[in-house]
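Hey L., structure's done. Input below.
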Amino acid sequence: MNAENWKAKGKFVEVNGRNLFVVEEGDPNKPTLLILHGYPSCSFDYYKVLPILSKKYRVIVHDHFGFGFSDKPVEYSYSIIDQADTALSLWRKLGIKEAFILAHDYGSSVLTEIVAKWNLGYRPVDINAIIFGNGSILINRVKLLFAQKILMNKKLGPILTKLSTESYFQYNLKKIFYDKSKYSKEEIRILYEIGMTKEAKAVFPRISLYNHERKKFWNRWITNGIYNTDIPIKIYWADKDPIAVIDMAHELKKNIPTANLKIIKDVGHYPMLEAPVLWSETVLGLLVE
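Output:
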């Protein structure tokens, strides 16, 4: 697999006058699983698990604006709220009526906004259940990397982004794999090639401010959002994640007692890359429980 192979698997769908890169696999007559990817990567995160998931589901994953092969407009807010609106518009355009939604990392915040809209009565897609995994939606418990803290600074963030190299990208992502033997420099090189273009670096400082939104919209997304919704919630958590630490999973379970929680042991922040079979089995299990 390389960047061009991955691009060839997908298609571009116009949403609000801009192009989103979308990959779809599986029988369209099967139940639909929608995936929201994390930061700073893209839909390529799921290249290992799509063949497994698509045996039982129609799986759709897109690159958020600013990520991967999707457009990176300069005149765009890159707010989590806008990314949620975009996802819902895409799914509506694809004719999705009913689905499960799975989110990881940054995608989890996008999903919390979708839940907030659902709670307020905006329901363009009938959501069967949602699955959260290793996302720092509980900003009070997150253990940010040094680079993430710098990127949250409006002055220093653009400087770090401009100076970032593939080596620095590799360095930071390797730190969040638990089993270093499962870390593939080639996979991360592809992620860098796809996602860290000149155009991406121009908008990433604005994207990186999303952690501030997690604080600002705490009540909308958490207290009155996922803690107060009728959507069935399921959670998987890789327990050796140094950023979205395992305490988050236990706090989510405590505040959403009906949630089904599955722990993926001895795996880091990217379980779909580090332990794709185990991650897929966990997700498939959650979807039917």
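The CA atoms of residues 60 and 72 lie 20 Å apart. The radius of gyration is 17 Å.

-- N.
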